[in-house]
Amino acid sequence: MREQRYYMACLDLTGRECVVVGGGKVGLEKVRGLLECGASVRVVAPEIERKLADLPVRWLESRYQGWDLDDAWLAVAATPDREVNRRVFEDAQQRGIFCNVADDPELCSLILPAVHRVDPIAIAVSTGGASPALAQRIRSEIAELVGPAHARLARELRELRPWAKENLPTYEARKEYFEELVSRSLS
Fold first, then answer.
1. At what angle do helices 171-185 and 148-167 cross, to 10 degrees?
2. How does pLDDT run across 120-136, given as a tens digit for each residue?
3. Strands, DSSP E only, in 7-149?
4. Is the whole model's pTM more than 0.90, yes or no?
5. In the chain, what is the straight-line distance between the N-terminal and C-terminal CA atoms, in Å?
6. Domains and CATH numbers, the chain
7. Which of 21, 81, 86, 124 has the greatest number of beta carbons closer than 10 A?
């Protein structure tokens, strides 16, 4: 059997409507991640964690219905009920919306990796849904290697990009220039 391959990408969720179905601890974790990236979050659940009520989300105090995904850009199912999660996934598929179902990779069109952030750097680790615990362990090990010095360098290099685009005529020349800067800075 061929291993499932995922196309790795970084999504700009700024202002985009994201729906989280489920208001428990898992839903809280997913909401925090979405808010951290600037998403506009709607939570659908009959009850929610107290900490979730303190976050800037719109709470629809009800059981999930298909129309809850109307106008959504991304859906996350985070309930303990696999049938509800399956309905969220199927409804998302019908609408052409990416969907993550917590702890159920078979019902995902999008999986969420373990992320280590030192802005502007974000390093994502995925095991393709095989083991979130392993992904978190690897993320922790990487976190020991990537820190504030790397973030400072990333900001400096970002500031140089317009100059490089204007003064270095080819992609290859810019690539070589930045590789040299990184090599000197991290030696």
1. 150
2. 999 999 988 889 899 99
3. 17-21, 40-44, 58-60, 74-77, 98-101, 114-118, 121-125
4. no
5. 43
6. 17-112 (3.40.50.720), 148-185 (no CATH)
7. 21
